[in-house]
Design a protein that fits this description.
The structure holds two protein chains of two kinds. By secondary structure, chain A is mainly beta. Chain A has one helix spanning about 1-20; strands at about 25-30, 40, 45-55, 60-70, 75, 80-85, 90, 95-100, 105-110, 120, 130, 135, 150-155, 160-165, 165-170, 175-180, 180-185, 190, 200-205, 210, 215, 225, 240, 245, 260-265, 270-275, 275-280, 280-285, 295-300, 300-305, 310, 320, 340, 350-355, 370. Helix content of chain B is about 5%, strand content about 60%. The chains are: A mainly beta, B mainly beta.
């Protein structure tokens, strides 16, 4: 009888051994989706996976979403023209290099020429971004999944260099850069963007770099917004924001969520000098949760062309723009080096041409010239570490070239 | 006194109906050994229709008997049948008490038919004693006596089981031994059931009416014949079988939730919810205009909550010489309940050097829910002969949820509004109407055949299971206003409306077969060898179509004010919806192939059950994202070898010692692999295709003592090492909504001990159990005070308990039983200690659900032979569900007390 049990147990162990050989570890494969090879660019209709150079003087029509794969480059010679149809977007996982010149800019626009009619540059995982002397117009709106699309979106620690370019009549956020991107944003003009929400230059989660000599006019939300991640406080966002001209921003989002010329929040650090703020809903707002210990600011000029402005939906509410240069909801305080207007005519920056816009719709024409007339109080009153003058247009020629 | 009078009048009434010509027979059926009354025994005259089934106290009565001589039979499954001749004269009132003796079961023969009346408490104890593995069984009798209207409530009273409750809904899922639902299996009639819920692999136990259940078996160790994906254990809901006698039971009750003593029920026009999205109706290129979208389902009104009503019946009988039997049960619940909930989002506080969490948003949410459940279960069995049986089980469950969620969210750290001091800042109102229909169909065809008499048994099953969930036009309205630093407020601005048509489904096809051989080896020994296999193909899909309605800008381009839903002027932001590329859309599949070999050896007092199971798994998904990526499609394969060895030693006739080892796994749910977000009430989950399945080695030791029939003492200890448990960690939070992902954090060690005791002292019964579980795992955390190195956060490993694992679980119930008054009263108390609910990203902090104590009272009194009055009061302590990060309250949900009053009628 005993022997019988031993047999059974032996048979059992043998079975276990045999079966043991069929144990397999976990294997996860992603081999079903084949990413097509990229096509070299040719003038005419383009779509799908592409690489190569947009040539000078040629016109390209994007008929469906474009993707630039990792390792590939999409570049442009001066004077190339790109028209986007069917609400398509340009996804960049590789390198984007759009190099125009003052005389021969590169043009990107939709066929319908209306705000929010193409998807812009979705560069979440790109390798490098350089955009110079390029027009990017009428971007934004939802993609096929219903998500709002920023005009230029980056979520990676790469170099982002945007200089001397025009961004006009976009929707949603215009530049939304995060996750440790190193930014050089110089001498650009951002006009009339965001429908009823969207920031001009939205920098989050560990972005470092410089935002200088830019003009932001009539943005729905804030002109320049600095934040670190709300869950991971380090690395911090730390940006030098100087010599920008920020006009008529922050009105379209409504008085419950007013927009600012510049805001600093969520453990970010800003160094805010030599900027001009005119007719912004709020001027500089330093939120309680920003890193205000390390944030520095001064030599900023604040002006309003009207004493009060009637709220867009509640006409009985008269908004005193001057009292919002440093709004009561923030912790920013007027600095001795600031030039703060107390009435119409006091510290008027003397723009060459300004239509006096306070609040205007998305897509409103920007016919202004924010260069300064001689005799402007902005001349010679800047923090010399950045520039001797205040505003985007300076006498030393380093400023905005538009 | 009044009840006595009532009974007296009733008695007179019944006597007069019976008339003087016929006779009456009454009596009690008891267990000859223990003298306990036997409930559910069938008393009838041979060759005649009708008869009587004993009530909860073993009493029966047959009236209208024509004078003459009869052969009386008393049957009770598992007991020897009583047969005796009895003669009645006209008008006679006879009295006959019968004692039955338990049949001794043969260990050496296979059989097709069940051994005992599985519905009774005594047989539950017997199942526990004789089971091959470590089980706890809850009988229908125990469920009927306690304040449980569904399986979730009932299960809370089983040793080492806790029920996980979700905010806003009534109940949810079973946690065995402090291990969260993912480590457990929920079976219906031994078969895995697909889930209509996109998030869970399981059906919510609250949609299974306890009325349909014959018993609930909880197995804490696995034998090779059981499916291997259970680490904590398996819950098997066994539905009622066709009885040998005509069976009819009905119950009804009405109830009310005390939360509506203090506030109204928020209602919306359910008729305004459109079942089809614009593209479903008019094709994929249809450009939706604002006019398409109904408005009155976003017009919320306050009304008095109607009472909850519960109705149920069970009917069964057999035909064709008892060969063919059926039982059908329907349970209908129309419940109105509410939750008052606080939900706070926490972020690192940058003002303190260690960046401890601080509240960034405070949201107060009021849920008003109408939940309609209908469970229809049918069972048909055909007993071909003593050796062959075929049965068909069908379970159909329907649940309809209509829910209003009104939420007020204040940003504490500023958000877009900016804030200075309490009472200021941007305030968001977010109101939602939501209708969800769930359908679950489960069909099982099963055969049992004795191929070689007494020795070889073959059984097979084919299962079709299909679950579907439809949530048409989930409408969400958000508006906001700002309280300025001077406490003036702005008007309400219209922010956004979203409309979502969601549909998901899960379909399973399974086939399984087992072959068992049993033989005697000498006088007290036997051997059983079993082998079998299973194949299951499951598919799941989620489909969503979302439309975003934004405020039409004012003339000068700004956001417009909100006055009421009917006068809002909106534009459709994405006019063709998200039908083609919604981020949440996917299809997924899972194929499981399993085989096992098992032996059971009984040598005198020792039982050894062992063997090995092999499970091969293939999982995969497909998505349609906007940007094509290799992660749009993935496939996962793995094969696990699962050995199991269980020893049971009968120390005495009334005590056992058990020891066991088994290996088991837990698979990620399909949605957890798909890298798209699945939206929840306050937490969204984005899947992770690289998450690994969980493997566990489990060791158990238990001593069992059965001093008397309805009595038991168990003492046990267990140890598990769990490789790659799947836990949720926070990615980020947005607008008061958390986003989490499933992740593996290494290997967890789990150890615990449990003690179970129950005893009756005359009329008083006490039953209690306590489980202590310790678990430990290490996970990487950000250390904010260390700043960053090379542009990256500094990471340190933190020791903590396993997610969803409860340290102490204590259940105590007191039962008072009065045979004379025919009354039961039961008071049930449950305690669970704090439980890690979510991993917080920073070192030193995690989300913990706080300790909870629940108290429930149930009572019933039999007023006539057929009628029992019942009352149930749940959540007497109005216990909040509170989640904290250290001392910071992250969420707090209150449901309040619920009352129920009703009756039960049995034939």
């Amino acid at each position: 009888m005993k022997a019988k049990y031993i047999y059974i147990l032996l048979a059992g162990s043998l079975l276990a051994l045999t079966l043991n050989s069929c144990k397999k570890g976990e294997l996860t494969t992603f081999d079903k989706i084949k990413i097509p090879t990229a096509n070299p660019l040719a003038a005419g209709n383009i779509s799908g996976f592409v690489k190569g150079t947009l040539l000078s003087g040629k016109t390209y029509t994007v008929t469906a979403d474009l993707t630039v794969k990792k390792g590939d480059t999409l570049s442009s010679q001066p004077g190339a023209i790109v028209m986007v149809k069917n609400n398509a977007q340009i996804t960049v996982q590789g390198v984007l290099q759009l190099i125009g010149t003052k005389d021969q800019p590169v043009y990107f626009n939709s066929d319908s020429n209306k705000p929010g009619t193409w998807g812009g540059f979705q560069c979440d995982t790109a390798q490098a971004i350089t955009i110079k002397w390029t027009h990017v117009d009428n971007t934004g709106g939802p993609d096929k999944s219903g998500s709002a699309r920023g005009t230029l979106k980056v979520k990676k620690a790469i170099n982002v260099d945007i200089e001397d370019s025009w961004f006009t009549n976009g929707q949603d956020d215009l530049m939304a850069l995060g996750n440790g991107a190193k930014v050089t944003i110089l001498r650009n003009t951002i006009s009339s963007s965001g429908s009823t929400d969207g920031e001009g230059i939205n920098l989050k989660t560990g972005v470092t770099g410089t935002v200088a000599y830019n003009v932001v006019f009539s943005q729905a939300g804030s002109g320049i917004k600095l934040e670190t991640s709300s869950s991971i406080p380090f690395p911090q966002t730390e940006v030098y924001v100087y010599n920008n001209t920020l006009v008529s921003n922050g009105w379209r989002r409504g008085s419950a969520e007013p927009g600012r010329g510049v805001s600093v929040g969520v453990n970010a650090i800003g160094h805010i000098y030599n900027n001009i703020f005119v007719n912004d809903y709020h001027g500089i707002e330093l939120f309680d949760d920003g890193d205000l210990v390390h944030t520095t600011y001064g030599n900023n000029l604040f002006y309003a062309t009207v004493d009060t402005y009637a709220d867009l939906v509640d006409p009985n509410l008269k908004i005193d723009i001057r009292s919002n240069f440093y709004p009561a909801s923030g912790l920013g305080k007027p600095q001795p080096t600031d030039l703060i207007s107390t009435k119409i005519g006091n510290y008027d920056p003397l723009f060459v041409q300004f239509d006096g816009t306070v609040a205007a719709p998305n897509g409103f024409p920007n016919t202004n010239n924010f260069r300064l007339q001689s005799g402007s109080p902005a001349f010679g009153t800047g923090n010399a570490k950045y520039n001797q003058d205040i505003g985007a247009y300076t006498t030393d020629g380093k400023g905005n070239q538009h | 006194m009044s009840i006595k009078n009532y009974l007296f009048i009733l008695f007179i009434f019944l006597s007069s109906v019976a008339a003087a010509q016929t006779a009456t027979l009454k009596g009690q059926i008891i267990d000859g050994q223990t003298k306990e009354p036997l409930s559910g025994a069938f008393v009838h005259f041979d060759g005649k229709n009708g008869g009587s089934v004993t009530d909860a106290f073993g009493h029966y009565s047959i009236s209208g008997i024509a004078p003459g001589t009869y052969k009386l039979k008393v049957k009770y499954v598992g007991f020897t049948e009583y047969e005796g001749k009895i003669t009645f004269t006209a008008g006679q009132s006879a009295m006959l008490n019968v004692s039955l003796l338990e049949k001794t079961e043969s260990l050496k023969a296979v059989k097709v038919y069940g051994a005992a009346n599985a519905e009774s408490e005594a047989s539950s104890r017997k199942s526990e004693k004789n089971a091959d593995n470590i089980t706890n069984v809850l009988s229908a009798q125990a469920m009927q006596r306690s304040p449980d209207i569904n399986a979730a409530n009932a299960l809370a009273r089983v040793s080492a089981i806790t029920i996980q409750r979700n905010s806003g809904s009534d109940e949810a899922y079973a946690i065995i031994r402090g291990l969260e639902p993912r480590y457990n299996n929920t079976l219906v009639n031994g078969v895995k059931v697909t889930s209509p819920d996109p998030v869970s692999r399981f059906i919510s136990l609250s949609i299974v009416p306890s009325d349909l259940l014959e018993r609930v078996e909880v197995s804490k160790t696995l034998t090779p014949e059981m499916e291997g994906d259970a680490i904590g254990g398996t819950v098997n809901l066994v539905f009622k079988d066709a009885p040998e006698y005509e069976y009819f039971k009905a119950n009804g009750s009405i109830g009310y939730s005390a939360i509506f003593f203090n506030r109204k029920f928020d209602d919306f026009q359910q008729g305004a919810v459109q079942s089809k999205s614009p593209t479903q109706r008019f094709g994929p290129n249809y450009v939706a205009t604002p006019g398409y979208f109904s408005r009155s389902n976003l017009d919320f009104t306050k009304k008095n909550a109607p009472p909850t009503s519960l109705l149920g019946f069970t009917y069964g009988r057999r035909f064709l010489n008892n060969k063919l039997g059926f039982i059908i049960a329907d349970s209908y619940q129309n419940q109105f309940y509410g939750t008052n909930s606080q939900f706070n989002v926490a972020e690192p506080d940058i003002h303190v050097s260690n960046f401890q969490p601080v509240i960034s948003d405070v949201a107060n949410r009021a849920y008003s829910t109408q939940q309609l459940n209908n469970g229809l279960s049918g069972h048909l069995d055909y007993k071909i002969d003593e050796n062959n049986k075929i049965s068909l089980d069908n379970v159909f469950l329907y649940t309809r949820l209509a829910q209003t969620r009104l939420s007020i969210d204040t940003s504490i750290l500023g958000g877009n509004g900016g804030r200075k001091g309490p009472g200021t800042g941007t305030v968001y109102n977010d109101d939602r109407s939501f209708i969800q229909n769930q359908y679950l169909e489960n069909l099982k065809l099963n055969g049992k055949h004795v191929i070689i008499d007494k020795h070889l048994l073959f059984d097979w099953s084919g299962v079709y299971s299909n679950a579907m969930q439809q949530a048409p036009d989930r409408a969400d309205l958000s508006i906001n206003h700002l309280i300025n630093p001077d406490f003036t407020r702005t008007v309400d601005y219209y922010d956004n409306i979203t409309r979502i048509w969601e549909k998901s489904g899960n379909k399973d096809l399974s086939a399984m077969a087992n072959l068992g051989y049993k033989t005697g080896l000498g006088d007290n020994s036997s051997l059983e060898i079993k082998a079998g296999g299973l194949y299951r193909h499951s598919t799941r899909y989620n489909h969503q179509n979302e439309y975003i309605l934004k405020a039409a800008p004012t003339a000068n381009g700004g956001k417009s004010a909100f006055t009421d839903i009917y006068s809002s002027d909106f534009i459709v932001y994405n006019q063709t919806g998200t039908d083609q590329s919604d981020a949440t859309n996917y299809t997924a599949y899972e194929n499981i192939t399993a085989g096992y070999g098992e032996f059971k050896l009984t040598v005198d007092k020792l039982d050894v059950v062992g063997g090995v199971r092999v499970e091969g798994t293939e999982q995969g998904y497909h998505t349609n994202p906007v940007v094509l990526s290799i992660y749009s499609d993935a496939k996962k394969t793995y094969t696990d070898l699962l050995p199991s060895l269980q020893l049971k030693y009968k120390l005495t006739e009334k005590s056992n010692l058990r020891a066991s080892y088994f290996k088991s796994i837990a698979r990620p749910a399909l949605f957890e692999l798909v890298p798209t977000p699945t939206f929840g009430q306050s937490t969204d989950v984005t899947g992770n295709p690289n998450v690994q399945h969980t493997e566990a080695n489990n060791y158990d030791l238990r001593y069992e003592l059965y001093p008397e029939k309805e009595e038991q003492i168990f003492v046990g200890a267990f140890y598990k090492d769990i490789k790659n448990p799947i836990e949720f960690a926070l990615n980020d939070s947005n607008n008061g909504q958390l986003n989490t992902s499933p992740q593996n954090f290494g290997t967890a060690k789990v150890a615990g001990a449990e003690i179970v005791y129950s005893k009756y002292f005359g009329n008083l019964g006490v039953s209690g159990n306590y489980t202590y579980t310790y678990s430990n795992i290490k996970s990487p955390k950000d250390v904010p005070e260390a700043g960053s190195v090379d542009g990256k956060p500094v990471i340190k490993y933190q020791s903590r308990p396993l997610q969803g694992q409860t340290g102490d679980v204590f259940n105590l119930s007191l039962l008072y039983k009065n045979d004379k008054q025919k009354a039961f009263v039961q008071l049930a108390y449950t305690y669970t200690s704090k439980t890690l609910s979510l991993v917080y990203p920073n070192y030193g902090y995690d989300y913990y659900t706080q300790p909870q104590s629940f108290l429930a009272l149930s009572a019933e009194k039999q007023v006539t032979k057929h009628f029992v009055l019942t009352t149930k009061v749940n959540n007497i302590l109005n216990t909040p569900t509170t989640v904290k990060i250290n001392n910071l309250i992250q969420s707090k949900d209150l449901y309040n007390v619920s009352f129920n009053l009703g009756f039960r009628y049995s034939l």
